[in-house]
Target: Dihydrofolate reductase
Amino acid sequence: MGSETYEAARKNIKLDGSQLRIILTRNPGRYSANAVPGKLEFSNESPQQLVKQLENKGFKQMLLLGGGTINALFLKESLVDELYLTLEPRIFGKGKTLVREGEFEVLLELMNIKRLNQSGTLLLKYKILS
Model:
């Protein structure tokens, strides 16, 4: 996840289990007091470098949590295989974007739709085609 997502969610992040959480930030040293090796790490690597590092450590899957900047970085480099979107039955006049503006286009194929509650919240699963 990106540092803005981390800052918004840090109170709710539990460092139990075997999950490794990596926060992408321009200044990893700023978070050195928060780092827990193997659980919560901070990096300024490029998306490609990060994915390669995780592959070398034996990781086969990665979950990308982030805002428009982080999402755009990984999508632009074709490092995303699937996209999960939660659609809430509510329209906002403002908010965060899914991806930051950029020179790229991503084609999707709908794989699955799951209704999550009586209000009509939907979980949409897409395959990335390009």
